[in-house]
Amino acid sequence: MAIGSKELGSNDLDTFDNERLVEELRKAKEELFNLRFQSATGQLESHGRLRAVKRDIARIYTVLRERELGIRATPAAAVAPAKAEKKTKAAKAETAEETE
């Protein structure tokens, strides 16, 4: 990810639960407010940071909406199918051994 904050990559957002995403959204909006205030008073040093924070906010909104629509799995749901898949592979291996 070239633009945006390094700690809020899309892969990292997948691991957050919804409550943590809402908290990160609140922090990002607060930071955007402060950056806009600094820009209006002429104290802003990095104008690129405005763009990065806006992208972080959009990224968080996208993850929340995709989870709401069922496009993206929540962290707890993402872990459960992986465990179930391992069990089925083990069961398949056992049945293959029994048939031989």
Overview of the molecule:
- This protein has 100 residues and is an all-alpha fold.
- The chain has a domain at 10-74: Helix Hairpins (Orthogonal Bundle).
- 77% of the residues lie in helices and 0% in strands.
- It has helices at 10-15, 18-41, 48-69, 75-99.
- Helix 2 (18-41) runs antiparallel to helix 3 (48-69).
- The protein is elongated.
Overall structural class, as computed from helix and strand content, comes to mainly alpha
Provide the gyration radius in Å: 21 Å
CATH architecture of the domain at 10-74: Orthogonal Bundle
Instruction: Please write the CATH class name of the domain at 10-74.
Output: Mainly Alpha
**H/E order of the elements?**
HHHH
Biggest beta sheet summary: none
| Estimated helix fraction | over 70%
Q: What is the third-level CATH name, the topology of the domain at 10-74? A: Helix Hairpins
Low-pLDDT residue spans: none
Mean pLDDT: 81
Total number of helical segments? 4
